[in-house]
Amino acid sequence: MAEKTLFQRIADGEIPADIVHEDELCIAFRDINPHAPTHILVVPRKPIPSLDDLEDADRDVVGHLFLCARDIAKSEGLSEGYRTVFNCGKHGQQTVNHLHLHLLGGRQMQWPPG
Ligand code: 5GP
Description:
By secondary structure, this protein is α+β, with helices and mostly antiparallel strands. 23% of the residues are buried. The mean pLDDT is 98. The protein has helices spanning 6-11, 59-75; strands spanning 19-22, 26-30, 38-44, 82-85, 101-105. The chain has a single domain, classed as HIT family, subunit A. Helices cover 20% and strands 22% of the residues. It has a 5-stranded antiparallel β-sheet, covered by helices on one side. Bound molecules: guanosine-5'-monophosphate. Residues 6, 15, 17, 29, 31-33, 41, 87, 93-96 line the site of guanosine-5'-monophosphate.
C-alpha cells in the first residue's frame, strides 16, 4: 500500500491539526504557517496528488471543496472577501503532494501574486 500523505495522516487523526470542518469527502484545518489572519486548507479525503492528477470522476469532489470553502468563509466571518488558491507543481510552488485548496482571508490581498 502507498505511504500515507501528510494530509491523510491529519485526516486520520495521526497528526494533530486545528480542524474547522469534516465530512465524508473532505477535511478542513488551519494552516500551520498562516499567510493571512484566516488561512485554512480544504483537503479531499481522496489522496489526489495535485490539480494535474484530477480525473473526470473527481468533478464532484472538487466542486465540494469550493462549496465547503464558501461555507467556511462565511463561518469565519470573511464578509469582505477572501482568496482561494490551488498551487500546482514546481512553478506553482506546491509543497504537499495531496490536493488542497487554500482559503485565505482577513486582510487585503494583492494582485498579481508573487
Ligand atoms: P502548498 O505549498 O503545497 O500549496 O501548501 C501546503 C501547506 O501546508 C503550506 O501552506 C504549509 O504551511 C501547510 N502545512 C505543511 N505541513 C503542515 C502540517 O503539518 N499541518 C498543517 N496544519 N499545515 C501544514
